[in-house]
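Sequence only, no structure available. Ideas?
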Amino acid sequence: GSDGGGSIRIPASVCGLFGIKPSRGRVSRGPIAGDATMLSVIGPLARTVADAAAMLDAMAVAQEGEPFWAPPLPAGETFAGQVGRDPGRLLVGRYATPAVPGATVEPQCLRAWEEASALLAELGHEVADADAPVNEAIIPIFELVWAVAAHSYPVDPAREGELLPLTRWLRERGAAASAPDFLRAMQQLQQVARSAVLAHARFDVVLTPTVAQPPRPVGWFSGAPHPAEDFERQKRFTPFTAVYNVTGQPAVNVPLHWSEDGLPIGVQLVGRPGAEATLVRLGSQLEAARPWAHRRPLTW
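Reply:
I predicted one. Tokens follow.
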């Protein structure tokens, strides 16, 4: 999948999968596609940590001319080779306070986060409460960049009417932004990224909910009366993922919890920059303690 604001971790959460958003520069966007915003990355979704790690090995092939690189693993090491290794005793920071105004974490998602916290402690890790690394001031900045990014691929003006209403709305917002506005927003996101990484630098891993609500019915987003409401519903549904597209840190969805009515609800683990290996080790430890690959929704 591709992930510019959560689009690996969110479907992984609602489908009961392990999804890896790699560090910025881990997987090439070349030779054609690019992302001037530096928000979007490519990564695997799989039933097991082992499958996702093996897929990441296949995808993380260095290409000449990349604008940035994630530090490689030590010579001879692979991500698949991290599966089953002891991650050691980690310091895990946790928070569940959304930066999106009006967003609240529903009880089932809070329960998933609390249960994951307890499991991490049972496995010998130190779990400590932390403050959120960003506040609501980041939201309009991110939205401006996101709207400009809706123009990443050219569309024949004569066919713009065929785009979904949300896409047209975002492109209209992006077209209304000036170049200085966009550059200023990019600079502000870089400043936010620095401060967010520093805010949690003492932690090996950070735990958050992946989504703030259980899976929504088909059509719940696109059935909104206006594209702005569609976008607002998306923000409130997943207020924890996009910040790590801004920071470029690796993050995974771990499908540990299922709701009372049989729907998967994941939690997000965030690593230090370039530290996918830690997330793979910890993810495989969690999977061994609470296996999930055999689970299927009732509609399966």
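The two ends are 22 Å apart (CA to CA).
Hope that gets you unstuck.
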